# Entry
Amino acid sequence: MPTLIDGKSVAAELRAQLRQAVERLWQERGIRPGLALLLVGDHPASHVYVRSKAKACQEVGFFSIVEHLPADTPQTKVLEYIERWNEREDVHGILVQLPLPRHIDEQEVLLRIDPCKDVDGFHPENVGRLVIGLPGFVPCTPAGIRELLRRYVGSLSGKHVVVVGRSNIVGKPVANLLLQKTPDANAVVTVCHTGAPDLRPFTRQADVLIVAMGVAGAIGAEHVKEGAVVIDVGINRVVDSVSGKERLVGDVRFEEVFPKVSAITPVPGGVGPMTIAMLLWNTYRAATGEIWKPHEAT
Ligand code: NDP
# Structure
C-alpha cells in the first residue's frame, strides 16, 4: 500500500516544537521573533497566503506586522518599507509576497532586503550560499520538501531525483538543495522544463519525482516509474464539474498515480503546510542569530 506523505501533520509537529522554542527564547534571552510581511496590490491568492502566514505567526508566539499597500504604490515607497524594517531590531524576518505589480522590479526589491532577514531565501546572497553549499536561508518550499523526504524516504544518496520546473522559488532551489554533498541529500538530480519535448523519458527514470509546474493534472501514471516517490508541489484552483465549486488540485493526477508509487504527497495537505512551517523556522533562526551573518563573515 503506498504511503500518503502527511505534510499537514509534520507541519503541525514542527509548529508545536517551535511554540516551545519561542517560549524558551523569550524566557532565556528576552527575544520574541518578529516577521514583517509586505503585500502590494490585490492578488486574491496573495491575500490568502499573507493572512495565513500572519495567523501562523500569532499561533507560535511571534510578533508580526502586515503592511498592505495599494497596487499603484511606487517602487520607492516599497523600498522605504524594506529599509525601515532592515533597521528595526524587533523585525528579524522580512517577506515580500510575490508576485509584485508589473511596474515594480522584483529583483530590485529582493536585493534590498538585508540577507540576514531574508527568511524566504530569495536574496542573491542566500541563493549563492545554497548553490555553493554554505549556511544561509533556504527557500521555504524546498526546505519543506527536504524535510518530508528526510522523514519519509531517508537517505537520498545516489537516488535519481527528477524535478519538473525551474522556477527560482521551487525548481532551482530544490534541485540545488538535493544535489549538495550532505548526508540528507547527495542525490543525482535532473531538472526538466518546457524545453523538453516529452517529459516521460526523464520522469520515468525518477526514484523521486518532484513536480512544480503549475499545470493541473499534467503528470499521470505514464510519467511515473513503479515504486517511485512523488512530491506534488502544484497548487491549482479548478472548478469541480459536479459541485460547481472551486477546489485545489495538484500537478499530478493523484488517483491514477497513487497505485503505482511507494509514497506520494496529497494536494492539499502535502507540501503546502510545510512551506509556512519552514518560514516560521527560518524566522526563528533569524531571531536567534543561528543563521550566517554577513558582517561576521567579513
Ligand atoms: P512557475 O510558473 O514559476 O514555474 C513553473 C515551471 O514549470 C517552469 O520552470 C516551467 O518551465 C515548468 N513547466 C510548466 N509547464 C511545463 C510543461 N508542460 N513541461 C515542462 N515544464 C513545464 O511556478 P512555481 O515554481 O512558482 O510554482 C509551481 C507550482 O507550485 C504552482 O502550482 C504553484 O502554485 C505551486 N507552489 C506551491 C507552493 C507550496 O507551498 N506548496 C509554493 C510555491 C509554489 P519554463 O521555465 O520552461 O517555463
User: Anything to note?
Assistant: The first strand starts at residue 3 and ends at 4. The first helix runs from residue 7 to 29. The CA atoms of residues 31 and 277 lie 19 Å apart.
